[in-house]
Specification:
The protein has 1179 residues and is α+β, with helices and mostly antiparallel strands. It has 38 helices and 39 strands. Keywords: Metal-binding, Zinc, Zinc-finger.
Length: 1179
């Protein structure tokens, strides 16, 4: 993985997280220990909330590895955790972490705590400190950077620093005033943390008030005395990666990390800013108390929180290299971050003797994909996921690249979902299941109400898993046969991926775009600009993971490079400038050698003429005087940079550029060059030059006279490159250039290629083939066939060599095999009395199979289309709600787990207020699809609305019976105890108990059933085939809220080898007995319910939401629900399309008479905006 270099420009410090906290263990079994990696961790909200969600009944080890490239973020995190461990008062802890101004006591506590922390300045000292057992340091550099910040925090208040302190305080006050003047009166801010309540006005209104108050006062206080006492600037807000200064992001808000749905959903009156702050404080106090309890009461070794300073790609690379340390490699240690030469060297004590984790069951990437791209995220995390059915990756995004949420994911991926799933072995869980239990319909609804030209945030979390793990019958310790591609198809696929990533770089591409598309593309490039090296890393991963033979790979690469050259001639001529870098990186990563790289000859003149041997690759160092960057500092942009070699009529671009502030010292000779780099610790603020380096094929430096070869550092041309840069830098967009023979500014060194990484596979190699996989013979390979476009995998063909003597004889004599789909990822072949399972890496459409028989050669081929996305037949529909086993533990595969006892209860007393949002939220799960899943969604809708009493004048239904419409049988009853807020998933959940009325228990419960019927039982009709779906769903509903009990050795699931146990109506209990009668306190408060207690099992029911990139949301009948809410949201967020004023400060806004979408506060604003708005207006 590699990221293009960009000029840092203005840096923003994020001392507080910008999304609400989530539970990081929501998709793994409750008793399974977990190694959890947080890339770009931000503040510790997710760690604290995850620990808060743990249950004391099932102890397990949690090992968090938190990385961030800002030392200020990590220093504040450890400061916070240490204060909680030391028992510093909760009020003081809150003030120090969230307030920009402190009172006397808080300021004194901050200084004291920082001085205490800074005493442990070595990793050995830290390990023996009061915090070392739980808080661990991953590198020496991490601790050194933190200690430096703690010292800066404490020394900030020293009398000798009074003048500097005044200057910084003035800077903070000026910045706060600027932010307040630029921020709309109505600001989304923390209101998205209200989830479904965002659809009403109160959260947005109150959050906007609180946001302004925070930036006006620098605190969350509403009391005048407390405000008056808060006079000390908080030093932790002045030191970050940008060094000293006030660089806090303009969206920072202490309310964002917390969950506000219960506050607004249970409000009995008007919610105030003080209510919002008190609610957030109470959550923070509860999370902190849970963490302190874990530190003091959990067994030693069960909790570890590790910190690593470095950008996400560097940390991932270091962890991957360490996990491959048994193999001799020459991979250089990755740099901590861009613009520094400091390397990320894992502490040997932590990662060797203590064995800190380098593979993880959970990887959370925050919204990194917005900044480094989805490709880099998948490349850096795929090798780090543990080989476990429960392993999970979370990606998150806030920025949008399209105006349609249905195409948002597609725009961010590098290929079709079927291709991504097969090449990388990971797929978005929702695309396989056709639903998600995480809700973001409030985000989608908000985006629907805004003008297409608005650049709004759209928060979306995607859960990724290995696709085959959703097939309970899949044997996960079995390595699949190697995948075989047609060389031409694979080469064409690589070419299509390449064009998808880089095709928009060509200036000719812009000429065919509409102005609004150019603006949108410019926004995308402003956030992320892919590099050719990332593409090469993808090829390397595919090459090794799929175990492609050397002969086939060489053919693929030859065809690919030819296609690339042809494409450059026909369609993308600008791309030819980067082909030499592709050749260099292919060789450097050890996956292919272009013939020209081995033909470099020593020139007769110039510096290379002195070298004894000319290697295939050379690293070029260009020293750029610091003042040359003044051109870039004069603009607000953060342009992407690359290096260019130009001579005669040739020009070659190189995007993988390293940069650092400092000086090069030449300590070698002309024949054997050797360089020493001395970095300036002041970094961006120094007057030292910048040294950039990049790798080139040596032949590039020998194709022309040395004195004619020009080396440049330039700005990359893309839609984000504005006219101001062109004016400043000239037509070549060069920041600085020097001749190859300029020994003051240009240096050369031989470059040693990297060793290829270890082969990656999706599972371990077994010692033997299980009987079910080898009864007839051994599967030899899986062939991959692309569709007509070459961009999507159409089918997979498994070949089975018939080897069993009896089966071979029968097959040769004409026996016809029976071939059927046995599970989402498996086909079963039967010959005579022998049955064998053929496994596929992703869900398949078995009903459209094609069977080829080769009786003379004794093999069978079974070709099946792939079932991605969910809208295809078969696939995951055969097992829509899997419960998977991990080391003896069970967990739902596509329903997140909920800490049911930690979730706040929804107050059902005020039904009128509830109707304002509840029914609309539950109804937002509905889609136009007509299938089993839709019927189950409809039944869940009825269960949840009847349980809340929001339908008509009915009271909340406490007991609900699912009645089969065809047979009128009822064998499933639900006892709804409470409805709770599922906080981090922004939805609601029915805390209920299920009673399967099997024949075994009917004699005992029959007398009590009559009493229930007298009280009143609400019946919900379920239609043909739906009862079977409910029986598949029930085990997952049980597992998602299981927190106090475990499955025993005599579990019926194990004995019978299937989940659920029964699928037919009135045929028996679909659930095992392990959870029956356990955790049923909710049944004990009612004397009649108490009699059913021994026979029920606790479940958690919640909506199954549509997936925007699989199935359209808010269409058909759902529009009836969405339209009035959309109108409310639109009115709430209305602002002048030109000046961004709201009604509260400019009176009534008026809609554009043409499009009826955008608003204006005055005729002058409308006229001024017409030039740009007319592109969208349909007048």
């Amino acid at each position: 993985m590699a990221l293009s270099l960009f000029w840092p420009g203005k840096y923003f410090f994020y001392p507080i997280g910008n999304t609400s906290a989530v539970c990081l263990t929501r998709d793994i079994p409750p008793e399974t220990s977990a190694n959890i990696l947080l890339l770009a961790c931000g503040d510790p909200r997710n760690v604290l909330y995850t620990i808060f969600c743990e249950t004391p009944d099932l102890s397990r080890a949690l090992d968090f590895t938190c990385c961030d490239f800002d030392p200020g973020v990590l220093a504040r995190n450890v400061l916070l955790l240490s204060m909680i461990i030391d028992g510093v008062s909760k009020e003081t802890t809150w003030n120090i972490f969230f307030h920009m101004y402190l009172d006397d006591d808080s300021q004194a506590a901050l200084v004291s705590q920082c001085q205490k922390l800074a005493m442990y300045s070595s990793v050995a000292d830290w390990r023996s400190s009061p915090y070392g057992a739980v808080i661990r340091m991953g590198t020496d550099h991490t601790l050194a950077a933190m200690c430096r910040h703690w010292e800066l925090y404490a020394n900030f208040y020293h009398p000798s620093r009074s003048e500097q302190r005044k200057d910084l305080q003035k800077k903070m006050e000026d910045t706060r005033r600027e932010i307040l003047s630029d921020t709309p009166v109505v600001n989304m801010s923390s209101s998205r943390s209200s989830g479904p309540l965002l659809l009403r006005y109160d959260p947005v209104h109150v959050a906007s008030q609180q946001f302004r108050r925070y930036w006006e006062t620098g605190t969350t206080f509403t009391d005048a005395t407390q405000l008056a006492n808060s006079t000390h600037p908080n030093s932790t807000f002045f030191y970050s990666r940008a060094h000293e200064g006030f660089d806090v992001h303009y969206g920072t808000d202490p309310m964002i990390p917390f969950h506000h749905a219960p506050l607004f959903g249970n409000a009995k009156g008007t919610v105030t800013v003080q209510n919002l702050v008190e609610s957030s404080r109470s959550q923070f106090y509860a999370w902190s108390a849970a963490f302190r309890t874990a530190v003091t009461t959990w067994k030693e070794g069960l909790l570890a929180i590790r910190f690593l300073l470095g950008d996400a790609l560097a940390v991932a690379s270091a962890l991957q290299n360490h996990s491959n340390s048994s193999v001799q490699t020459v991979h250089p240690m990755p740099r901590v971050a861009a613009w520094t030469a400091c390397v990320l060297k894992l502490n040997p004590e932590e990662y060797a003797r203590v064995a800190a984790p380098v593979r993880f069951e959970v990887i959370d990437t925050s919204n990194l994909s917005d900044h480094v791209g989805m490709l880099n995220i998948l490349l850096c995390t795929a090798p780090l996921l543990a080989h476990s059915p429960c392993s999970v990756l979370y990606t998150e995004s806030l920025l949008t690249h399209t105006t349609d949420s249905a195409t948002e994911l597609e725009s961010k991926l590098f290929a079709d979902l079927s291709v991504v799933s097969v090449l990388l072995g990971m797929a978005p869980l929702d695309s396989l299941s056709g639903f998600t239990s995480l809700c973001n319909t409030h985000e989608q609804l908000t985006s629907l109400t805004l003008s297409p030209s608005d650049h709004r945030q759209y928060h979306q979390i995607i859960t990724w898993r290995q696709p085959s793990t959703g097939d309970p019958s899949f044997i996960h310790d079995f390595t699949l046969p190697p995948l075989r591609f047609d060389a031409n198809q694979l080469a064409r696929l690589f070419c299509d991926i390449y064009v998808h990533l880089f095709g928009t770089e060509d200036p000719a591409h812009f000429m065919n775009l509409k102005p609004e598309d150019i603006v949108r593309l410019g926004r995308k490039f402003a956030c992320f600009c892919p590099s050719r090296e990332s593409f090469i890393v993808l090829l390397s991963l595919v090459h090794n993971r799929l175990q492609i033979s050397a002969a086939l790979w060489s053919g693929v690469m030859r065809i690919f490079l030819n296609l690339l050259s042809d494409d450059a001639l026909r369609t993308h001529p600008f791309d030819r400038l980067n082909h030499r870098e592709i050749h260099a990186q292919l060789y450097r990563h050890g996956i292919y050698s272009v013939p020209e790289l081995d033909k470099a000859r020593r020139p007769r003149v110039g510096r290379l003429s002195h070298w004894a041997n000319i290697p295939p690759l050379v690293r070029v160092f260009l020293t750029v005087p610091r003042n040359e960057f003044a051109k870039l500092e004069s603009i607000p942009n953060t342009p992407w940079l690359h290096c260019v070699i130009r001579y005669s009529q040739s020009e070659h671009g190189f995007q993988s550029v390293d940069a650092a502030y400092g000086t090069l010292i030449d300590r070698g000779s002309k024949a054997k060059p050797d360089l020493l780099f001395r970095e300036d610790p002041e970094g961006h603020r120094t007057h030292c030059p910048v040294v950039v380096s990049f790798v080139v094929p040596s032949c590039v430096l020998t194709e022309a006279a040395p004195e004619t070869i020009d080396i440049r550092l330039s700005v990359r041309t893309n839609p984000g490159s504005n006219k101001a840069l062109l004016f400043l830098l000239g037509p070549y967009m060069a920041v600085f250039h020097a001749c190859l023979e300029d020994t003051d500014h240009v240096h050369l060194l031989p470059e040693v290629p990297l060793s290829p990484p270890d082969t990656l596979s999706s599972a371990f190699v077994p010692l033997h083939f299980p009987k079910k996989l080898s009864a007839i013979g051994r599967p030899s390979h899986l062939a991959v066939d692309m569709d007509g476009t070459g961009k999507r995998i159409a089918s997979l063909t498994a070949r089975l060599d018939v080897e069993d003597v009896q089966a071979k004889e029968q097959f040769a004599k004409g026996a016809m095999p029976t071939v059927t789909q046995s599970s989402p990822c498996a086909m079963q072949v039967v010959i005579g009395g022998l049955a064998q399972t053929l496994l596929y890496p992703i869900p398949i459409v078995g009903s459209e199979r094609k069977v080829r028989l080769a009786r003379k050669s004794s093999y069978i081929e079974v070709a099946v289309p792939v079932a991605i996305p969910y809208l295809r037949p078969d696939g995951q529909r055969l097992c829509p709600f899997p419960v998977v086993r991990t080391n003896g533990s069970l967990s739902p595969w596509n329903l997140h787990r909920v800490p049911i006892n930690r979730l706040p209860v929804l107050d059902l007393a005020n039904v009128d207020r509830l109707r304002l949002w509840y029914d609309a939220h539950v109804g937002s799960q509905d889609t136009e699809q007509l299938d089993l899943l839709t019927n189950i969604k409809d039944s869940i809708h009825h269960v949840m609305t009847k349980a809340a009493g929001t339908q008509g004048t009915e009271k909340p239904a406490r007991v609900i019976a699912l009645r089969d419409d065809e047979t009128q049988d009822c064998d499933t009853m639900l006892f709804v105890n409470r409805i709770r807020f599922d906080l981090s998933s922004h939805t609601i959940v029915c805390d209920a108990f299920v009673l399967p009325t099997s024949h075994a228990i009917m004699p005992t419960i029959s007398p009590f059933i009559g009493q229930l019927l007298q009280r009143g039982v609400t019946s919900i009709r379920v239609y043909r085939g739906e009862m079977r779906g409910w029986k598949q769903l029930l085990p997952a509903l049980v597992e998602r809220c299981r927190t106090t009990w475990t499955h025993g050795a005599n579990c019926e699931y194990v004995a019978k080898g299937k989940i659920p146990l029964q699928l037919k109506t009135s045929a028996g209990d679909p659930l095992c007995s392990c959870g029956r009668g356990k955790d049923v306190d909710g049944m004990l408060h009612d004397n009649l319910w108490k009699k059913f207690g021994p026979f029920v099992t606790r479940i958690a029911i919640s909506p199954l939401f549509a997936v925007s990139y699989v199935d359209p949301v808010f269409t058909g009948g759902t529009e009836d629900v969405a339209s009035p809410l959309a109108s409310d949201v639109k009115e709430t967020l209305a602002e002048c399309h030109r000046c961004r004023k709201q009604r509260s400060i400019s009176g009534e806004l008026r809609r554009c008479s043409g499009c009826k979408i955008v608003y204006y506060c005055s005729e002058a604003c409308q006229k001024s905006d017409w030039k740009s708005h007319k592109l969208d207006c349909n007048r």
